[in-house]
Amino acid sequence: MTEEIHKGLAGVVADHTAVSKVNPESNSLLYRGYPVQQLAAELAFEEVALLLWNGELPDAAQKEEFRAFERSHRALDPRVKSAIDLLPLDCHPMDVGRTAVSVLGANHPLSEDSSPEAELTKAKELFAAFPAVVAYDQRRRRQLQLVEPREDLDYSQNFLWMTFGEEAPEEVVDAFRVSMVLYAEHSFNASTFTARVVTSTLADLHSAVTAAIGALKGPLHGGANEAVMHTFEEIGINPAETREDAAARAKAWMEQALAEKRKVMGFGHRVYKSGDSRVPTMKQALDAMVDYYGRGELMGLYDGLEAAMGEAKNILPNLDYPAGPTYHLMGFDTEMFTPLFIAARITGWTAHIAEQRANNALIRPLSAYNGPEERHL
Ligand code: SDX
């Protein structure tokens, strides 16, 4: 019997979801029915998180309640800080994020309580707690002290405050907020599917999120935003260069990379074949940062790579492509980019964990054996 193999599960519809709809035909993305562009234009990230968890936009009272909750759960747990301090400064920040979530789970009094109420509480706490992990990790790598959160700032303002120790300008806060909204959710991507697989065994929420972080780390998935910046660095970033010169160098680099059959991160997508729905909105945020910091030459690199990839292979950028240089301009170290993706995707992962739990079936596909025929010792 020859079984039909769906390598990489490509094209397989594994289950229903009501969290988001990715439509490659119309290049659109809906969170609970709302176009992501509208959400990114009008809502705080905190409101988008509530939408993803609850299925509806929050009313004023729900917004206020979550505002107070989130602001009071931001401080870095001392046990998490101790665990981070044990990790080497040259380990990958994704390892730090993964460890931090694991430590939070091991210490959580509700860790084995999988009721919808307990799960939502844990999701909200994780959402509130994770920025301090990223911010502290970025600072310790620069030999800087922890900065305590501020309750007078919103999520994005406070994230940047804890990372850089100063209040970020409005333009930067807004670009950061937009990136969080765009990164929040994307149906059955590899990390979300990982979270659902772990949940399907009836394991706890922190185990599912920890596993999802492992899946997100790879450069074919979330690690691509970091890899994009490594490409820029490999080509060479020179703020004194003209945009045209940077574009020409980037084009030549891409032609060479494609001739060598290299995979260039930040381009292509398993689902979208004619453009990632989120790229135009993220590109606007990047343009705003380029204007704010006066770094037009970076767009030379950006445009040159995009044009050469388009001409040679007709492969378009994905969200990680504009997100990488945006985070670079904001001042994050390149290795910190994928942990920022974690901070955003905690919302989508935990919404999917709840959905999986509410209508669970163990996820366990079949395999077609192609090893040796039966043999004996
Ligand atoms: C994310 O799934 C999600 O929703 C993920 C995500 C989310 O929000 O959760 O959107 C986030 O993970 C974005 C993707 C980030 N990854 C990268 O940027 C890595 C680079 N991209 C590729 O490796 C690739 O496009 C994938 C992995 C994203 C998708 O790959 P597929 O669908 O398995 O397609 P493929 O690798 O089989 O590629 C098909 C063809 C191949 O050429 P041929 O062998 O047919 O000649 O396109 C080529 C590939 O070599 N190709 C690329 C390429 N992407 C595809 N060639 C060079 N560089 C690339 N980036």
From TrEMBL:
<dbReference type="InterPro" id="IPR036969">
    <property type="entry name" value="Citrate_synthase_sf"/>
</dbReference>
<keyword id="KW-0816">Tricarboxylic acid cycle</keyword>
<feature type="active site">
    <location>
        <position position="320"/>
    </location>
</feature>
<dbReference type="InterPro" id="IPR002020">
    <property type="entry name" value="Citrate_synthase"/>
</dbReference>
<dbReference type="InterPro" id="IPR011278">
    <property type="entry name" value="2-MeCitrate/Citrate_synth_II"/>
</dbReference>
<dbReference type="InterPro" id="IPR024176">
    <property type="entry name" value="Citrate_synthase_bac-typ"/>
</dbReference>
<dbReference type="InterPro" id="IPR019810">
    <property type="entry name" value="Citrate_synthase_AS"/>
</dbReference>
<dbReference type="GO" id="GO:0005975">
    <property type="term" value="P:carbohydrate metabolic process"/>
</dbReference>
<dbReference type="InterPro" id="IPR016143">
    <property type="entry name" value="Citrate_synth-like_sm_a-sub"/>
</dbReference>
<protein>
    <recommendedName>
        <fullName>Citrate synthase</fullName>
    </recommendedName>
</protein>
<feature type="active site">
    <location>
        <position position="269"/>
    </location>
</feature>
<dbReference type="GO" id="GO:0006099">
    <property type="term" value="P:tricarboxylic acid cycle"/>
</dbReference>
<dbReference type="GO" id="GO:0005829">
    <property type="term" value="C:cytosol"/>
</dbReference>
<keyword id="KW-0808">Transferase</keyword>
<keyword id="KW-0012">Acyltransferase</keyword>
<dbReference type="Pfam" id="PF00285">
    <property type="entry name" value="Citrate_synt"/>
</dbReference>
<dbReference type="InterPro" id="IPR016142">
    <property type="entry name" value="Citrate_synth-like_lrg_a-sub"/>
</dbReference>
<dbReference type="GO" id="GO:0036440">
    <property type="term" value="F:citrate synthase activity"/>
</dbReference>
<comment type="pathway">
    <text>Carbohydrate metabolism; tricarboxylic acid cycle.</text>
</comment>
<comment type="similarity">
    <text>Belongs to the citrate synthase family.</text>
</comment>
